[in-house]
Design a protein that fits this description.
The chain is an alpha+beta fold. Helices cover about 35% and strands about 20% of the residues. The longest helix has 23 residues. It starts with 8 loop residues before the first helix and ends in a 5-residue tail after the last helix.
């Protein structure tokens, strides 16, 4: 078992060709599990396409010789049993759900990468010392119900059945009812919470343009940004657009426009990795000949340092309140989403760097501005997150694309890390 995973350049090239074929074939197959005939992939939590995809993956895992099992929320595991039966498992995977009309790589790539890596490792090295598991996490996106990370959050104890009790989707279906319709729910299978995971490794497309712009094949994520999302409401006075003098107006939209401009300028001044976005704006009464009397907008702010992120949000509330008061407006704020920043395991990141260097794979350390299941696992067990490039930085879109060679390089790095964690003594 002390043999290196790869020893000759020509062997690496042949392996990459095999990985390309395996990964692209499985991604194309998995993309076929989608709702309706629309463009892209739509696979929402506990939908018919979601259930069919999980069942199809279970069959794939079984045919690959893996021990297959669901937990009570619908997370699906395929296990390659290790010789040390009581040792914690090394787990890899990602989420099976998508956004509406999303791409075929987001989430799915991490699952497929795990399946292919385990197949290669077993064929070449046989039974590992420590068990290897690939997990198809039931949900991450929050696309159907107003709750994200249901799959990974349930595994680490940060999500509960009590949290979902009041939640419904856009058609009025309850979270619990949808889960039960697929055969899952409290007591339906083994508990979701696990305390026997020795490490979690997620492989994912970058969903940004940094790696492509810098000509790199791999991103080694050292931290996942914390997030704060707020509703801002400004109340002024709706009035006639022709008869209300400019100096007497309480124009809520004018106040919002200035705030949005200053938000961008302040984020630029504070610098990366801080980002701030106004993604939704509602104007009332929203007609051409009336001064807007009320505006509501959202702010999404992210940073890898929670203290700096909180300081930015304090600036936001203070500055916006002052600007509102100067204009005779009333400002209200509601924080409706909060996730802390998560540093990932430094030891695993160093191992990934060493693997990339040894194999001549161009890589860099980087933060993740997007949320991932790895941030749930990050406070629960040693966790690593590996990125491959996204063409033009596009994701959550049918145009999402990563080349077969880039996909294969990600699996190659994943496989070697899993080899070191599961096959070598003393790791």
């Amino acid at each position: 078992m002390e043999q290196e995973l790869l020893s000759q350049p020509q062997e690496q090239e042949g392996l990459l060709n095999w990985l390309e074929a395996e990964v692209t074939d499985k991604l194309d197959w998995l993309a076929g599990y989608s709702e309706g005939d629309g463009i892209g992939v739509t696979r929402l939590l506990y939908s018919k396409s979601w259930l069919a995809a999980q069942q199809g993956l279970a069959a794939k895992m079984t045919s690959q010789g893996l021990e297959t099992a669901y937990d009570e929320v619908g997370n699906l595991y395929g296990k390659l049993q290790g010789k040390q039966v009581d040792a914690p498992s090394i787990v890899t995977g990602s989420h099976i759900d998508t956004v509406v009309q999303g791409g075929k790589y987001d989430g799915a790539y991490g699952i497929v990468a795990g399946l292919v890596a385990l197949r290669y490792l077993e064929r070449r090295y046989g039974q590992p010392l420590r068990s290897l598991e690939v997990v198809s996490l039931c949900e991450e996106e929050g696309s159907r119900f107003p709750l994200a990370y249901w799959g990974s959050g349930s595994i680490v104890g940060r999500r509960s059945h009590a949290q979902i009790a009041p939640l419904i989707d856009s058609e009025g279906t309850g979270f619990g009812a949808a889960m039960a319709a697929c055969g899952f729910g409290a007591g339906s299978a083994r508990p979701a919470l696990r305390r026997d995971i020795g490490a979690f490794v997620e492989t994912h497309i970058e969903q940004g343009g940094v790696l492509e712009a810098e000509g790199l094949a791999v991103g080694i994520v050292d931290s996942i940004a914390g997030q704060r999302r707020l509703y801002v409401e400004l109340i002024g006075e709706a009035n006639h657009a022709g008869t209300t003098p400019m100096h007497l107006r309480k124009d809520a939209l004018e106040g919002a426009a200035l705030m949005i401009h200053l938000l961008r300028q302040e984020a630029i001044r504070r610098g990366a990795p801080l980002v701030a976005t106004v993604g939704k704006l509602q104007v009332y009464p929203n007609v051409p000949n009336v001064v807007p009397g009320k505006v509501q907008f959202t702010v999404d702010a992210r940073h890898t340092d929670d203290a700096q992120l909180d300081a930015f949000c304090v600036w936001l509330r203070t500055t916006f309140a002052q600007l509102a008061a100067q204009r005779g407006l009333t400002a209200g704020f509601e924080e409706w989403f909060r996730e802390r920043a998560v540093p990932l395991d430094a030891w695993l990141s160093r191992r990934l760097e060493r693997i990339c260097t040894a194999r001549g794979i161009a890589a860099r350390r980087m933060p993740s501005g997007a949320g991932h299941d790895a941030q749930m696992f990050g406070g629960h067990c040693p966790t690593a997150l590996l990125f491959v490039p996204s063409r033009r930085g596009i994701s959550h879109s049918p145009e999402e694309y990563t080349s077969p060679r880039e996909l294969a390089l990600g699996v190659l790095v994943l496989a070697e890390l899993l080899y070191e964690l599961a096959y070598k003594e003393g790791e």
